[in-house]
Amino acid sequence: MTFFDPQLFRQQFPLLVDNDKSNFEKSDSNTGLIYFDNAATTQKPKQVIDSQQGYYQELNANVHRASHQLSTKATIAFENARALTQKFINAQHINQIIWSKGATESINIITHSLARNTLKQGDEIVLCVSEHHANIVPWQIVAEQTGAIIKVLPINALGYLDVNQLDKVITEKTKFVACAHISNVIGKINPISLIIEKAKSVGAISVIDGAQAVAHVNIDVQALDCDFYVFSAHKMYGPTGVGVLYGKQALLESMSPYQGGGEMIKTVSFINGVTYNTLPFKLEAGTPNIAGVVTFAESIKFLSPLLTSVDNNYALYEKSLIDYCYQALSKIPQVTFIVEGAPDIPVFAFTVVGHHNQDLAIALDAHGIAIRSGHHCAMPLMETLSLRGCLRVSLAAYNTRAEVDYFIDCLQSLINDNHTMDNNIENNIVLL
Ligand code: PMP
């Protein structure tokens, strides 16, 4: 697809088409699916699904190693995916794209292979309070190992990282600043350019977690001038088990191997020891997820034209969904958003006065509506907002106003139904 048409776009997703609620009798409310859990993972378009099967049927061989033609073909497809990824985020060189299992592993590579080697007692790592655990726990581990200290940037009432606090929190002691481009709960685009600039001004390394941004925002790592940018394929209509670590060349060069094994070495000898391969292979030990990487190329081909199209229709459609859903939720008096103002991507986090989050999520599921409840891997954010959890509704560009209407009707009637809900319960019970 090179242009965006909401209906045509939706038609590309077999799981949605096969389970479209409008295909079923209205009287049987639990048939069909409304998938509103896109921040967790998106559905996959047919060309991505077909690509996976096509790879195994036509190309399957190990990459980089053999001298036979099939391996050469697989290697070309695998490295073409790297080139597409380089173009997708506008990295300068192809060897700045390192494959990982996902954003989580990409961050762990940075903490394990760089931060662990460079941090000293009393050095500071700055994180935002709304980070996903994937961008907290690896830093906590490395802080424990090195004696470094974690400092936390707060958010403002709107849920954006509070730039007024930058000068106070990021200082000469700061060695790493790691923050999400967009929080997976709040859905607001953080002012990362300011953060990257501030990190640079004190000589700190900037790490941007783009897991929630890549499906919605066109990324240009050279324009951002961040040191690292990480993301997962499965949140941008691609396969699970594939992630990207982008890094500035000199930093990647300076990193020690993450894992040892095949592919990441130049020479191995019991007499002379080991010498390592060049980038990107030095950081990619063992047989990679070849089918996943090749399939990921299809999701880039699918998404990239929509993110960069001059008509901007993909972004405009998402914006119309945001406005529509935000207004509809705002009209329900019992709905309390966890931060003020409409989100920048279609992710809505809220609680419902007098109702358990999990009860509502389960009741909605019985109507065929998939949403999420809990802490969303952002326990420090919940702690800060004095919440023990919340509901999260996350849409993608294949969702429709009709689906939002159906969801709002169901939510409203569940709220109104005092027989099935216990209104005396404590709100926001912890749900793991
Ligand atoms: N960061 C953010 C903001 C996320 O939303 C997620 C996934 N929920 C991750 C990191 C981790 O991604 P993955 O589980 O694909 O490694």
Keywords:
alpha/beta; cysteine desulfurase; binds 4'-deoxy-4'-aminopyridoxal-5'-phosphate; EC 2.8.1.7; 15 strands; 432 residues; transferase
Written overview of the protein:
The protein contains 15 helices and 15 strands. The protein has 432 residues and is an alpha/beta fold. It has a 7-stranded mixed beta sheet with strand order 2-8-7-6-5-3-4, sandwiched between helices. Helix 3 runs antiparallel to helix 11 and helix 5 runs parallel beside helix 6. The C terminus is likely disordered. The site of 4'-deoxy-4'-aminopyridoxal-5'-phosphate has 14 residues, from helix 5. Keywords: Pyridoxal phosphate, Transferase. This is cysteine desulfurase.
Helices, by number, come to 15
Strand order of the largest sheet: 2-8-7-6-5-3-4
What gyration radius follows from the Cα positions, in whole Å? Answer: 23 Å
Helical residue percent? 25-40%
Number of beta strands: 15
What binds here, in terms of ligands, is: 4'-deoxy-4'-aminopyridoxal-5'-phosphate
Order of helices and strands: HHEHHEHEHEHEHEHEEHEEHHEEHEEHEH
Low-pLDDT residue spans = 419-432
Overall structural class, as computed from helix and strand content, comes to alpha/beta
Question: Distance between termini?
Answer: 39 Å
Describe the largest sheet.
7 strands, mixed
Mean pLDDT: 95
Shape: globular
Report the sheet-strand fraction. 15-25%
